[in-house]
Design a protein that fits this description.
single chain, 65 residues, three-stranded antiparallel sheet, 26% strand, globular
Amino acid sequence: MILHSIVSPYDIFCNKDGLTARPEYRRVPGGTVEISDGRIKRLISTDPRMFLNEKYKPDTAVGKQ
């Protein structure tokens, strides 16, 4: 079976017994980041240059930003 999805494989296959932590949102200059399990899940911004910044790429540990 092949699964084509825009949802990350982590979200599909890593369900920890149905318990999902509530995501945390932090304001950063130019947007907001969603943090879950100590890692950045996504960047919410209207500035296209923010998405090129390595500090805000998905799966980056929060301590490294």
